[in-house]
Automatic annotation (TrEMBL):
GO terms for molecular function: zinc ion binding. This is Metabolite traffic protein EboE. PANTHER family: HYDROXYPYRUVATE ISOMERASE. Residues 65-233 form the Xylose isomerase-like TIM barrel domain.
């Protein structure tokens, strides 16, 4: 979906396909048929943007076979779909029964992360619509926080500088500009937008910036205005933003609140949980850990890294951080000029929701994604953007 900003520029809205597990090219093509096109039809548009997730095997199949890339591009066009952004964070196995810490491997200290991201950039340059010259890719924020030292930091920064050089060469060859955004996430070396400033300054290239995920920003209790002001002052490019909402509990000491939170403690993904006091940000790696012990303070709100559907907050006594998304979006695209032109709805946890909230059919999932995109569209038009045909 495309929108015209009041300054005349185009803002793209997509939804991320990592919600649909697929490790192979055949699986990606099935996603387009079984999920993406039905969502487009429900939204009622001739063209729908998708934030494509290409796992390792799918990406390598495309890199090895140029005709397969042309075939994918043809299939996108045939189904009324377009791609200006890729989700390059998960490498493989994102649809597994247990993902947890595996999603952070390989990290930016491993040469395979550089190879994979380079492949994604080359593919995106070929998948961009004919009238679009700029693409974006989100990636993990360097590494999970453990076993990371100065030597590993130097290795990661060098890999990103090498990537920037390759992206320069790619634009010279294709005329397409691809940028990479580190996506701050709780528990990682870069947990917050503030944490991103030093390493991105060290890398020192405008093709390497940040992806602002509004669930992650909310989970770490970041103020959107302060966060975006800091990025602007540091001249860190906001490559893209993922529109998502976290799980919020105002009174975590109450038994009914803890019972409601426990329903979201599931075995597939990490749900890092945070609480902020005037003195510090307190955290656990998972929601179950927070509920089982006394690691987090009980007298202050908790937030958990659980991407809850945008259009419907969980039932009381818990809720979502939709208001943080709204405040962030107003700063990103509500000013005289957009701070980013690539927006992506990224609720990948539909099948991890408590059983009574999960979609049980493809149609129900498509209806939910459509409702999220409709909400995002309404937020954008309320900010003065005009939806384009």
């Amino acid at each position: 979906m495309r929108f015209r900003h009041p300054d005349g520029s185009t803002v793209h809205l997509a939804y991320c396909t990592n919600v649909h597990p697929a490790e192979t090219l055949e699986g990606v093509l099935a996603q387009l048929r079984d999920h993406c096109e039905p969502v487009r039809k429900r939204v009622g548009r001739d063209r729908l943007g998708i934030g494509l997730w290409l796992a390792k095997d799918a990406a390598r199949a495309l890199i090895r076979d140029p005709s397969a890339v042309r075939g994918l591009r043809t299939e996108l066009d045939r189904r009324g779909l377009e791609v200006v952004t890729l989700n390059g964070f998960p490498y493989e196995g994102f649809g597994s029964a247990e993902v947890k810490y595996r999603v952070y491997k390989p990290d930016w200290t491993d040469p395979e992360r550089l190879t994979h991201t380079t492949d994604l950039a080359r593919l995106l340059a070929q998948l961009l619509p004919d009238d679009v010259t700029e693409g974006s890719i989100s990636t993990l924020p360097l590494a999970w926080r453990t076993s990371y030292d100065a030597d590993r930091a130097a290795t990661a920064h060098a890999a990103l500088r090498t990537l920037a050089e390759r992206l320069d060469a790619l634009e010279e060859l294709t005329g397409r500009s691809i940028r990479i955004g580190l996506e701050p996430e709780p528990g990682c070396i870069v947990e917050t937008t503030h944490d991103a400033i030093a390493p991105l300054t060290a890398v020192g290239h405008d093709r390497i910036g940040i992806c602002v995920d509004t669930c992650h920003l909310a989970t770490s209790f970041e103020d959107p205005h302060t966060a975006l002001d800091e990025l602007t002052a540091a001249r860190i490019p906001i490559v893209k933003s993922q529109l998502s909402a976290a799980l919020h509990a105002e009174h975590p000491h109450l038994p009914d609140v803890r019972e409601a939170l426990a329903a979201f403690d599931e075995p597939r993904f990490l749900h890092q949980t945070r609480a902020r006091t005037p003195a510090a940000l307190h955290g656990t790696d998972d929601l179950g850990e927070a509920l089982a012990g006394d690691t987090l303070p009980q007298a202050t709100p908790w937030r958990a890294h659980f991407h809850v559907p945008l259009h419907t907050a969980p039932a009381a006594p818990v809720t979502s951080t939709l208001s943080v998304l709204q405040d962030t979006l107003a700063r990103l695209v509500g000013g005289p000029h957009p701070l980013t032109s690539h927006l992506e709805v990224e609720t990948y946890t539909w099948q991890a929701l408590p059983p009574e909230l999960r979609p049980h059919t493809r149609a129900q999932l498509a209806d939910g994604i459509t409702a999220e995109l409709t909400l995002a569209r309404d937020l954008l038009t309320d900010l003065g953007l005009k939806e384009l045909p």
